[in-house]
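Minutes, project check-in

Agenda point 3 was the complex the collaborators sent over. CS summarized: two entities, 266 residues total, and the question is how they sit relative to each other. Sequences were read into the notes so everyone works from the same version.
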Amino acid sequence: MNTLPEWLRQLRFDEHGLIPAIAQDAHDGTVLMVAWMNAESLAETAGTGYAVYWSRSRSRLWRKGEESGHRQRVREIRLDCDGDVLLLKVEQEGGIACHTGRRSCFFQRLETGERPGWVNVDPVLKDPEHIYK
Amino acid sequence: MNTLPEWLRQLRFDEHGLIPAIAQDAHDGTVLMVAWMNAESLAETAGTGYAVYWSRSRSRLWRKGEESGHRQRVREIRLDCDGDVLLLKVEQEGGIACHTGRRSCFFQRLETGERPGWVNVDPVLKDPEHIYK
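CS then shared the predicted structure for the full assembly.
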């Protein structure tokens, strides 16, 4: 790991070499999704200007939009005070970040009251069957 | 854990019983911080309307603002499609979420170019010595 450039060595990756990254719409601030990055994916993100994550389920680089076409153009990368969370301000191509066909992955809202529960409050913009064909 | 209400059992806590929570300014969408919650802290958050986290370093509930006075009034709680990240839309009392005295913990921006590096781009609004007295 000594070969990593200084700006990458300053990050506090977890025991798996990963760091969570929040993707936020650069224009209106909507939080779109949270995914994971390793040093390689972050270096590629910074180099290409498009978000690249690390897929934990597939154990490989995940170039966001590689299947769906919903790439994320990265306008700004920020790091928090502890150095263990990234924030990417992105332009979401296609306007859809979530694999469910919604704009944001955070479409479940907690309704409190007598019977609290999670309610889907955001519309499906595109049928996932037509996104991943 | 069977005694947990259904809406809490739907969450995918990690092996330590924790789930990350993003706090976002309810008014302008600024991402303020990321912290951890367990079931108890989330239940108290939902019940009281003020953000309560789980402090991993102190291994106890962390009622945000208990020392600094910078409490977070929670306006909305959202859950992502995987059920493993929370998003809290909050009103940040005092306008400062970060222990460094800045509004947001995400004050370091990656400057690319020949010598990439993290640069502090947001001002300290209040000296931490005066926040934690």
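Noted in discussion: The mean pLDDT of chain A is 95.
Follow-up: revisit at the next meeting once the mutant set is ready.
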